[in-house]
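FAQ: What does the model actually see?

It sees only this:
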Amino acid sequence: MMNKFLIFILCAACLASASLLGMDALGEEQMLGGMVNTAGRGFAGGAKTSDAEGLSVVNPARIAFDSKVVFNLNFFIDMTTAEGDGSTYSTKNIGLPSFNFSFPMGTFGAIGLSLWQRYSSSMDESVKDSVSKMDAEVKYQGSLYEIVPTYAVRIPFFRMLSLGASAHFVIGNVERSLIFGPDNSAVSKDDSWATNSSKVTDYVSGSWEIKNHPAYYSLALQFRGRQVSYFFSYTTPYVLQNDLAFDLRFSELDTLVPTRYTREIKVPALFATGVNYRLYKRYNVMMDLQWRSWEDDIENIAGSWNMPEVTKTQNDFMIAVGFQRDGSPLFYDPYLDRTAFRVGGWMKSWYVKDVYEYGGSIGAGLPMGRKGTTIDLALQGGIRTTGGDENWEEMFFGIRIGLMGVGTWGQSRGK
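And it is asked to produce this:
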C-alpha cells in the first residue's frame, strides 16, 4: 500500500511544473543564463553584438565588441499547468536566475562576471488519501549555481574577430524531504491507536561541486561583419559530484545515523553556434543551435521507498530563431522609436528522455534615461510533452523582468 501511495505522489510531482523536470536528477535547466533580452527573442541572438549587448554564458567572445559597461539583473515569474491521466496540477514559481556584469577595456579586451542558476528543483506539497487515510508531505529544494568569470579580446590586425574564454565554478545544494503518516492497514483496530501519531521522515541533503577540478571551461570565436555576425563555442565536459547524507527520522528525537553517499554525473561537452543578420542598421534576424550528447543515465537521489535509481537521458538539442528591432540611440527621438522590440521561438529536447519543449516569446527594451539604462520585459509561453510510458503535457507561461544599466566607466568625457 505504501509503495503504491508513493508512486502516486511521485507521478503528481513529475506533472507539477517546469522546475520539477528531472528533480531527482539535476532539475530544470535555465536556458542561456536567464537573460531577459535573450528570452524575448526566443533565446536566440548569441551572435548579436552592439555597443552594450552584454555577457553571454554560451558565447564569451561577444563582450569584446562592447564599448560600454553593462550591468544586468533578472527576475523570473513562472506559472505552469500540467495535465495527465485526467488530473490537473498548477504551480507558480518566482526566481532570480542571473546577474551579469561586463567591463570593456579598449585594446585590452573586456572582462565579465555572471552568477547563473543553471539547474533548479522546487516542490512543497501535501497529499492526502481519503481511502487509505494516509498523509504525506513532499518537499524538494535545490539549486545549482555557476559563477562565471569571462575574458574576451579582439584579435590584432583582424579586428572583426574576437576570442573569448570563461570558467564555470559550481556551487549549490539540494534537499529532499518525504514525510509519511502511519499505514494502519496491517494493524488491528485495537492496536491502531499506537500508530496514529507516528511519522517517518526520509531526509536527504547534499552539496554540488566539480570532481577533481575547480571549474569547467568555455571557449568561443566571434566574427562581426558589416551585416552578418556569427560565433562558434565549445564547452568542456566535466563530472558533477554530489555529496549526499541520507537521514531516516522517526521523530524529532529519534534519528538514525545518517548514511553518506556520493553520486557522480558525467556532463558531456556542449557545442553551440549562432548567426545574426542585420538589415537596415536596426533590424536583426538570428538563429542559434546547441547540442550536447548524453551517453550515461543520471543517478537519482533515490535512497529509499523503492524510488527509481536513474533518470534516463537523451541528446540535448535546441534550435532558436528570433527577430529584434533595435531602439534608436538618439534621446530626442519618439519613445516608441527608442524602444527595442523582440519576438522569437524555440524547440528543445531536454536531457531527460522523451521530454520536449516548444515555446515562443515577445519582448521589449524600454529606455529609462539618456545614458542607455533600460527595463527589459519578456513574455514567454509554450508546451512540454513526453512520449514515454506516462503521457502528459504541461502548458507554461513566464514573465521575465530585467534591469540593464549602461555606463562609460573609466572613459574620458567628450568636450
